[in-house]
Amino acid sequence: MTSFDKPKNILYVENGIGYGGAIICLRHLVTNLDRSKYAPLVVTGRTSPQYQDIAQEAPWKHIPDRLIDVVGMQKYLTNQAWPDKLPGLRFIGQQILARLDDICNFLPFFLRLLWTAWRFKTDLIHANNEPLCNRAALLVAKCLRIPSVCHVRGSQKGSLSMRWAYSLPDHFVSVSNWVSDSMQQKLNIPKDKISVVYDGIALEKLDINADGQVFREQFNIPGDAFVVGLVGLLIPWKGQYLFLDSAKILKDKIPNLKMAIIGGTPDDCIDYEQHLKNRVTDENLKNIVIFTGHQSGMDRIYNALDIVTSASTSPEPLGTMVIECMAMGRLLLGPNHGGTAEMVTHQTTGLLFQPNSAEDLAEKILKVHQDKTIIKTLGKTAREEAFMKFDINHHTGEIQKIYQAIINA
To answer: Are residues 89 and 18 in the same domain?
Structure first.
C-alpha cells in the first residue's frame, strides 16, 4: 500500500485582512485539488457571503478570529492625546490591549482550530497568509506534530515577532521570486525551504467577450468616456491616494475622463475609505472619480475599462488582478517594483510607471489616451503570456508536489 492510497487531509487556514486575491487563489486551488489524493477543509476567520460561497467548492468552517474589536480600541488610543500626559502610559495601554487581544481573540481561535484540526485528522496544515497573522495555524501544527506549509504573499519587515513566526512553518510557498529573495535577505530563510509558485486561476473561465457596457450603465459612465480603473481592496498601500493624485493632474487634460476605484473595504479600513471620499469632494473630483465597492463578475469590469491600474505604494507580492487583467487581454499599467515588475514586461505585456509617482502614472495614462492602439497591441501579448505562466492546473500540480514531498518525508 502506498502512502497515497487514502487521501491526505489538508487543513487550509485563511486569516487575511479581507476578501481579496489571496482567498480567491485559495478557492481556485481547492476546487482543482486532486480529491483522490487530498481532502480539503477550509477554515476562515471571516464569514461574509463571499466566504460562505467557499462551501460550494470544498468543506468550509468559520471560526471567528475577532470576538472583541481590539483593533478599533487601538485606533482610538492612537488618536488620543491624553496617554502622552503621563510617561509610559501609552505603552502600558498598548500592552494591555495586546494582551486583551491574546486572551479574547487569539486564544479562543487557537483552541477551536486545534480541536477542528484534531477532529479532521489533519495530515498537513496550509496557512494561506503570512506566518505572523497565521501563527495560530502554525502553532496547531506544532502541537499535533504535523507538517505545515505557509503561503507568503507579502514583504517582511524583520521585527522580532515576525522572525519568530517565520521559524514555525516546515516549508514556504512564495508567490514570486521577489518575495522569495526578500525572505532570504531579510530573515535568512534557507532557499531550500522556499518554493516559488506563481498564483494560478481558472483563466479559461474568464469571459473575454463579457459585456463591459453593463458595468458602465450601472455607474452611469458614458459610452465615449475614457475609463481608468484601479482594482483592489481599499487599504492604504494599494495606492488609492496616488490614484487620486493622478486624477487631479489629468482632470483638465482628458475629456470625459472617469477614474474608477473598484474594490471592497475591510472593516479595519472604513476610516480610510471615508478619507478618500472626503478628498474627492474637497478637490472637486466627484465628476471624475467613481467608487464601486466590492464587485463580482470581474471579466465584464475589465472589459469596461480602457486601462486597468495597479498603484501599490509598497511592492505588490504578485497581484491576482494583474493575472486576471493580462488573461483578459486588457492593458495593465502598474508600478515598476515587486511582483508586478516581475510579471509585466514594459511596453510588451503592459506599461510600468515609477513607483509612488503620481506624475509618471498620469503621464502614462495620457500617453495611452493619445495612442489607443497600445491598448489592443499590448493586451494581446499579455493574454498569451498569462496563459503560459498562470494556469491553475500548473499551479495546483506544483502545490501537490510540495504536499507529497513533505508528507512522505
So the answer is: yes
